[in-house]
TrEMBL record:
Stretches that traverse the bilayer: none
Pfam families for the chain: Acylphosphatase, HypF_C, HypF_C_2, Sua5_yciO_yrdC, zf-HYPF
Keyword Zinc: yes
Name assigned to this protein: Carbamoyltransferase HypF
Taxonomic lineage: Bacteria, Pseudomonadati, Pseudomonadota, Alphaproteobacteria, Hyphomicrobiales
Amino acid sequence: MPSEEIIVRGIVQGVGFRPFVWRLAQRLGLDGEVSNRGDAVVIVASGPPPVLDAFAAALAAEAPPLARVESIERRAAPSFAGSGFIIAASAPGTVSVGIVADIATCPACRAEIADPAARRHRYAFTNCTDCGPRFSIVEGLPYDRAATTMRGFSLCAACRAEYADPADRRFHAQPIACPECGPRLWLEAGGEVIDGDPVEAAALRLRAGKILAIKGIGGFHIACDATSEASVAELRARKHRPTKPLAVMLRDPAMVEAFCVAGDAEIAALTHPSAPILLLRLRPESALAAAVAPGQNRLGVMLPYTPLHHQLMETVGRPLVMTSANRSGEPQIFRDEAARAGLAEIVDGLLTHDRPIARRLDDSVVQFAAGRPQVMRRGRGLAPAPRDLPAGFAPAPPVLALGGALKSAICLTIGGKALLSHHLGDLDEPATQDAFEQAIADYTVLFDHRPAAIAVDTHPDYPPSRFGAALAEARGLPLIAVQHHHAHIAAVMAERGWPLEGGPVIGIALDGLGFGEDGTIWGAEILLCDYRDSRRLARLRPIPLAGGDAANREPWRVLLAHLDVALGPEAVPDALFAGLPVATLRAMIARGLNAPLASSTGRLFDAMAALLGLAPPRLSFEGEAAMALQAVAEMAGDVPPYPFGRAPVGNLMEIDPAPMWRAACADLAAGCSLDSIARRFHAGVAESFADLALSLAAAQGARAIALSGGVCQNALLLEMLVARLEPSGRSLLLPGEVPANDGGLALGQAAVAAARLGVAPRGGR
């Protein structure tokens, strides 16, 4: 019989692909074998040519639901010396980027833990090839049990039989376990293990108002009763988190619909195997504690995604706050000893277990905006799934991109693919910087990555820029600096598959702050971009940030600067700034002392929130003012946009907010509702940037318009922008699976660096 070697590449490890191949071969009567290599699944199959053709076609058409077949190569092979079809041991090979993300408990395992007659009844670590931990436990490739944190748990006879049976759904499920041989769960408080069922004991304490740390897949959560004002207030006090919204876990879709507004698309997103936190509109009559999301109309909701969570939610019977277990500003805790030491003053006990976590993974966060899902934080359930780079990038050498200082993530490019890491955090804390450097070492070793260049932000003082410069020097590699907003636009271009030689696009970069090419601070720009280069065509009129970084935390400073420009200092109402050092700030601005100019959309939103009394004198978390402004604006119906000016300034077009400020102040003085003013502001920003972008696209002959930057996570603003841009007929490139905020920056840096490095432009250069 003819034989073929068939090589399948993609996400084909840890998803039950080899048993699928075995069952398919059994069905078709083929002889041969299947094995894992680091970069592929390799099949040797022997049989009649028509049957081999049917077999190859079915490999893609019938692949397991968690697999992603990207290529199938077939070539003649020597005759298979044997009969029957076997699953051979994994072989070493080139490391693949196709590690599967951690997967929520599948329906079959959920039914099993609920069945009193089942061997794994109420077992907190039940999983199979279709679900369970993956990336959080893997320590090396090929993906086999010996290369995971489960290697310390020897299989019992029953589990070994399941693991070895290709017909079983647990065949080669590397985290396979049962109560006899697997990890164990316990509740501890005050240094003592609590007797009895750990889940029942934890539920009893949560219902009584206690605060517990709960060990999940990627780290610990801090949990309390989300319907208890006293419990939530106590959690906030202990964690020093006064107002930032807290995520909530709800038992099932029915409970979601009782507390939030959720349609079919939202429920599908919540029940997806990635099981993200999803931002949903709260029902006004919700029984949740008001302190869960003060001043907000949206709530971060997730469903149980491990057997432990399912049992806990069934037993508690009410919503639970599930917020990352960390001290303010520090990374999430994922090791028991760190939880005991670091959370002692925050929690009343730990519900934990002895399955080690290889790397911390924060929950992913998703919202729906302009009718589309948009990832806001990429973590558990989504990372580290690779992305294909667009057409033209395949010859580019490998790049390591280090992202920005906030919402940090790194990106590796390997053979035409980009691997964007999980969320690493804000690098303004030494502990987070340590975690960032550890993640670089982890990813480069795990994926055997040998970069030809290091890509960083052009800001020389960002921690990733400093680290990247030192790394490039130590390894003798080129360092490629990419302007912040060029990287934002390149990220969405790469995500949406814009070809390397697809021509320039108009990029609307609406952001907080980024180091500009002219040495000033940018954050509200319209750019003409391809992957190699970027040119600024327009900006928001800059205003001084009095006090420098203090203006990022105190919105009244930015409001004062805007109103002084728009109204003149003599016309600014004193009541807006009662008790604040206005004279000092004006003197700083007049002298140019620690008052850098910035064209920031983020600070513009902060200033409007301050005008309407929606921002505290000092923010307790990033985005606090803008989120409150959006929530109020969404209460209003359709309103006309506030006017913005537009005029050329040098070689740029400049959008002037002064007319908007004058109109908004007049409306406020006239007693107009805050929601109306807030919505007119959103509409004015959308109209001014969208209309100018369309004009510039026509003038430049650009076929596409791309939107990115942290402010594009404002769902209301994004919807208004899309509504004005879509009718133009130009391609609209919007962020989706790659965060619009700085969490996607590294992908853009990697794409720009790859384009500059190793792919010759059309016609040479």
